[in-house]
Design a protein that fits this description.
By secondary structure, the protein is an alpha/beta fold. The protein has one domain (about 5-235, about 305-355): TIM Barrel, CATH 3.20.20. Helix content is about 40%, strand content about 20%. It is built from 13 helices and 15 strands. It has helices at about 30-45, 60-70, 85-100, 115-120, 125-145, 185-190, 205-215, 235-245, 250-265, 270-280, 310-325, 335-345, 345-350, and strands spanning about 5-10, 50, 75-80, 105-110, 150-155, 160-165, 175-180, 195-200, 225-230, 285-290, 290, 305-310, 325-330, 365-370, 380. The strands form 3 sheets. An 8-stranded parallel barrel has the order 1-2-3-4-7-8-9-13, surrounded by 8 helices. The radius of gyration is 22 Å and the shape is globular. It binds flavin mononucleotide. Flavin mononucleotide binds next to strand 8 and helix 10.
Length: about 375
């Protein structure tokens, strides 16, 4: 039998809501709310959470440090952006975060897909050069994490006798994840990443990418993960109604503005592949069975959701698993309630179980929920 998927959730560190493209029932950016989401994910059996990076997000390392203090098991897939700080400084940050979390750090390499955003961070490299820069960055970073020392006189990075005094908990370092779909990105990932991540493209396209990464890796071990939204309900019909509801207040103007913004700002091949799935049109959003591109009408990055009953969605996930995917990074709007719903409905189908609280639930009688009011739940005979 295949291993259960490694299933992570997402911290919406730039805000959350219930109706895409509107302020209706939206939620402010509030670290207390992120603690709520992280605690729910921790309790329900998610193995970790992805914390994104960007000018509109809370800073990923600092947020992870806060959430770690409020959780017990959860791992933190924290975005690391080469060039926003030196590799030696990032090595100290990552080693300390791995130490204070007792080895709960995973790193997501984000090279970036917006020249404008990168310019704001002081990075002025064309698309493919960013990967050459990232390659040198991780030569220094990895050497520091593994041995405490590094020197490099590279084209982009110069480090003289760099030192890291306190090693990370995980040896030689926390695992490196990477998402990027360009040739340069895949070439980079093949040489360095332990896990290659793709946004939720249809299975045939994911299969192509996996084959491309495997070819480029030439025998080096790389595993694979997928980043998807989930709209799971007890029946397929209810799930599709929830998908419709999510974009029920979304105007054509909001779609046009979001698409124009993405096209103007992004040179990311991965983003172009996401946008091509729906082409800005709301009338052909099921881009492959149960794969719905409605989120991408306004949201950049992960733009597709698996929609359906638990059995339907689990079957679709098995198709990805058969291609080699072993990790899912999931989300749903709003992230607090949907973390609970996905765990309630989908985890049993996937064989994922929450850690059992070490508390007796009764004196042996079987309990029926909802029966009791203030005298307690109705008790049936044991058996
Ligand atoms: C799972 C996943 C998570 C990502 N997270 C971020 C993020 O937090 N911030 C960001 O700016 N880009 C993020 N990206 C985008 C990529 O890191 C990358 O910068 C971009 O797609 C450009 O790469 P490409 O042209 O090689 O596709 C993510 C991509 C994937 C697949």
């Amino acid at each position: 039998m295949t291993q259960p998927l490694d299933f992570l959730w997402f911290i919406p560190s730039s805000g959350d809501g219930q109706y895409l493209g509107t302020d209706l029932l939206s939620r402010p950016v509030d670290p207390d709310y992120f603690r709520d989401i992280a605690r729910v994910a921790d309790r329900l059996g998610y193995s970790g959470v992805l914390i994104p990076t960007g000018v509109a997000c809370e800073e990923s390392f600092i947020l992870a440090a806060d959430l770690a203090a409020h959780t017990e098991r959860l791992k933190f897939l924290v975005a690391i952006r080469p060039g926003t700080a030196s590799p030696a400084y990032y090595a100290r940050m990552a080693a300390t975060l791995d130490r204070v979390t007792r080895g709960r750090l995973l790193l997501n390499i984000v090279v970036g897909g917006s020249a404008q955003e990168l310019a704001g961070d002081g990075i002025f490299l064309p698309h493919d050069e960013r990967y050459a820069h990232a390659d040198e960055f991780f030569q220094v970073f990895n050497s520091l994490m593994a041995t405490g020392q590094a020197s490099l006189n590279g084209k982009h990075i110069r480090a003289e006798n760099a030192r890291l005094g306190l090693p990370p908990v995980q040896a030689p370092r926390p695992p490196l994840y990477f998402g990027g779909s360009s040739e340069a990105g895949i070439g980079f990932a093949a040489g360095i990443a332990e896990k290659y991540l793709t946004w939720g493209e249809p299975p045939a396209q994911v299969a192509e990418k996996i084959a491309q990464v495997r070819r480029a890796a030439a025998g080096r071990a790389v595993s694979f993960g997928i980043r998807l939204h989930f709209i799971v309900r007890e029946t397929d019909e209810e799930a599709w109604a929830a998908a419709d509801r999510l974009i029920s207040h979304l105007s054509d103007e909001a779609i046009a503005a979001a698409q124009a913004g993405q096209n103007a700002q992004s040179d990311s091949v991965g983003q172009a592949r996401m946008t091509a799935l729906h082409g800005g049109r709301r009338d052909r959003l099921e881009v492959s069975p149960n794969l719905w591109a409605g989120v991408g009408l306004v949201r950049s990055g992960a733009g597709t959701a698996l929609v359906g009953s638990p059995a339907t969605v689990a079957a679709r996930l098995r198709e990805y698993q058969d291609l080699g995917i072993d990790t899912v990074i999931a989300s749903g709007y709003p992230h607090l309630e949907e973390a609970q719903r996905v765990a309630d409905l989908l985890f049993p189908e996937l064989g994922i179980s929450a850690p059992v609280p070490p508390l007796r639930q009764s004196f042996g009688e079987k309990q029926v929920f909802g029966g009791g009011g203030h005298v307690g739940n109705v008790k049936l005979a044991a058996g």
